[in-house]
Amino acid sequence: MSDAPIQEFTVDELAHDAGLPVSTIRMYQHRGLIDPPEKRGRVGYYNAGHRERLRLIAQLQDRGFSLAAIKEAVDSWNSGESLDQLLGVDDLVPSTAATPLRLTPADFASKFAGIELTQADMRKAAAIGLIEVDGTDVIVANASFADVGPAIASQGIPVSEMLDEYEALQVAVDGIAERFRKVFETRLWADFVDAGMPADEIPKLSTAADQLAQLATTSVTAELNARFAAFVEEYVSQAAK
């Protein structure tokens, strides 16, 4: 577990991770959109919180918010709310969103007791976003993986193979999600933007986004279950012959 990546970044590493020029990172910092890094000698180190803030800024810009609007929200941050809550972003995240799980290294290892879990597997899991290390803790991006992963591996499927399949699944899910994102953007978000993004319409937009996410999830799950049932029946029929 000691070889797992630590979530600290120099400004160059953070810029590369976010796909931004270093000058943009410094501009955000100068404007107060992100906190200064932790200085150690002459080098500043950013953390996972900085990375998440950059992702949030990018998401808000994609949704039509200007840097000035984001800065105004930061300046009015006086009620203990996070920036995403203040701008209503939390309200737009469907209730079906994955819940992260924080585990100690020992607790994480116990989940895979009796299952071969190599450092290469850990690095692959981190690379595809399944886990990350925060200090001494392991954060599992989707809490269900902490149970589903070991359950799949216990059936004799190597962890490395399971991670390869998960990576392929991410690509497939990205395609499905993008189609629904376009539906949301053209049918719901466009009207909201045209109306001037009124704050009192955020709850309505939130409800619509949540309903769309649940309908999409239900539809995909139903189709996937049907495909599984079909191939299971096929193999069982062959076994019965």
If you had to describe this structure to a student in words, what would you say it looks like?
The chain folds into 2 domains: 8-92, Multidrug-efflux Transporter Regulator, Chain: A, Domain 2, CATH 1.10.1660; 101-240, no CATH class. It is flat and about 70 Å long. It has helices at 11-18, 22-31, 48-62, 67-75, 83-86, 89-92, 105-111, 119-127, 145-153, 159-194, 202-240, and strands at 8-9, 38-40, 43-47, 101-103, 131-134, 137-140. The longest helix is centred in the last third of the chain and has 39 residues, at 202-240. With 241 residues, it is mainly α. The protein has 11 helices and 6 strands.
Kindly report the average pLDDT value.
82
Number of domains: 2
Counted by DSSP, the helix tally is 11
Radius of gyration: 21 Å
Distance between the termini: 47 Å
Assess the beta-strand content as a share of residues.
5-15%
Percent in helix: 55-70%
Number of separate strands: 6
Would you tell me the structural class of the helices and strands?
Answer: mainly alpha
- Flag low-confidence runs: none
Helix-strand string? EHHEEHHHHEHHEEHHH
The 3D shape can be described as flat
Strands side by side in the biggest sheet: 1-3-2
Largest sheet entry: 3 strands, antiparallel
